[in-house]
UniProtKB/TrEMBL annotation:
Keywords: Oxidoreductase
Organism lineage: Eukaryota, Fungi, Dikarya, Ascomycota, Pezizomycotina
MF terms in GO: branched-chain 2-oxo acid dehydrogenase activity
Residue ranges annotated for the Transketolase-like pyrimidine-binding domain, each copy included: 24-200
EC numbers for this chain: 1.2.4.4
Catalyzed chemical reaction(s): N(6)-[(R)-lipoyl]-L-lysyl-[protein] + 3-methyl-2-oxobutanoate + H(+) = N(6)-[(R)-S(8)-2-methylpropanoyldihydrolipoyl]-L-lysyl-[protein] + CO2
Top-rank EC class of the record's enzyme: oxidoreductase
InterPro entries referenced in this protein's UniProt entry, alphabetically: THDP-binding (IPR029061), Transketo_C/PFOR_II (IPR009014), Transketolase-like_Pyr-bd (IPR005475), Transketolase_C (IPR033248)
CDD domains, sorted: TPP_PYR_E1-PDHc-beta_like
Descriptive protein name: 3-methyl-2-oxobutanoate dehydrogenase (2-methylpropanoyl-transferring)
């Protein structure tokens, strides 16, 4: 069972085909997706620092044993080199899945991602050349003790860049389906995995392969008075705050998971806010120029006449992640509850 009660009804739809289910946690679901990609397409490669040993969070566990060191292998400690190698592989028709050990270390690869990967298909023009199938996975976010170099959420830095797709799953079933869709995509994808969730929840996940649509948000709980837009780990905090607020204020609150942060699903968000008239955007990364800023601006442009209160943004404070104060730096259920209260009382 998922620790997020509103996720229980959010499994992918498979028609009438019987499916064999298992109940993995998030890192096991990612491992299953990687296994399927390697098993079904010999062009697939998985590589990164310590990947052959299973990785820091065990996402690539047993893959080197099953598929050999030519397809699952360790790289030097060079993020720029890892991403540059992935771009070259994809340009030659391979399906590279690169891992950056922590999202905090992606910055040396920023030039490769922004100036090379993101521009590749645009630069190729009518030739049809692309580096689709290139996926860069990276654990992100706070765990309560990561401090300066193991707790960052850099997703907003990449949502400014056309040509990249930015994806963040919330749960095991979502992670497997979104990762397989990312591998099949004709654009390079940055796949950010909230590391605090790797072992935090299990839910029923089909053993067979399936894909969930990229750039399509999901309404995980319907409501009438307030829309909360979030993604990744904060969805769990939103769930707790919603349960308390609905009980205390006698309202119903809609919860939307963006899933893909760029290009993101404006239509679903706007439809929700036009119905509820109130909006709160919650994310763990810094509030300054974060994903919430773009969502809030889009809501103001597309649903202004329906708004009953200003759009609120909740995010991490605009400061570095100090070890002792890490848990105070990111939104918690209390801050989200207070934002709901301010919104409904405005």
């Amino acid at each position: 069972m998922s620790i997020f009660p509103y996720m229980l009804g959010s499994q992918p739809v498979y028609g009438d085909t019987p499916r064999t289910l298992q109940t993995p946690n998030l890192f096991q679901a990612i491992n299953s997706a990687l296994d399927h990609a390697l098993r079904t397409d010999e062009r697939t490669l998985v590589f990164g620092e310590d990947v052959a040993f299973g990785g820091v969070f065990r996402c690539s566990m047993n893959l080197a044993k099953d598929f050999g060191s030519e397809r699952v292998f360790n790289t030097p400690l060079s993020e720029q080199g890892i991403v540059g190698f992935a771009i070259g592989c994809a340009a030659q028709g391979m399906k590279p899945i690169a891992e950056i050990q922590f999202a905090d270390y992606v910055y040396p690869a920023f030039d490769q991602l922004v100036n090379e990967a993101a521009k590749w298909r645009y630069r190729e023009g009518a030739t049809g050349g692309n580096i689709g199938g290139m996926v860069v996975r990276m654990p992100c976010g706070s765990v309560g003790h990561g401090a300066l170099y193991h707790s960052q959420s850099p997703e907003s830095l990449f949502t400014h860049i056309p040509g990249l797709r930015i994806v963040m799953p919330r749960s095991p079933a979502q992670a497997k389906g979104l990762l397989l869709a990312s591998i099949a995509c004709n654009d390079p994808v940055l796949f950010l995995e909230p590391k605090v969730l790797y072992r935090a929840a299990v839910e029923q996940v089909p053993m067979e392969a399936y894909e969930l649509p990229l750039s399509q948000a999901e309404v995980v709980k319907e409501g009438k008075e307030v829309t909360i837009v979030s993604y990744g780990q904060p969805l769990y905090l939103c769930s707790s705050a919603i349960a308390a607020a609905e009980k205390d204020f006698g309202i119903s609150i809609e919860l939307v998971d963006l899933r893909t942060l760029y290009p993101w699903d404006r239509e679903t968000v706007l439809q929700s806010v036009q119905k509820t008239g109130r909006a709160i955007v919650v994310h763990e990364s810094m509030v300054n120029a974060g994903v919430g800023a773009e969502v809030a601006a889009t809501i103001q442009e597309g649903a202004f006449l329906r708004l009953e209160a200003p759009v609120q943004r909740l995010g991490g404070w605009a400061t570095h992640m100090g070890l002792v104060f890490e848990r105070f730096n990111i939104p918690d259920a209390t801050r989200i509850y207070d934002a709901i209260k301010r919104t409904v009382e405005y």
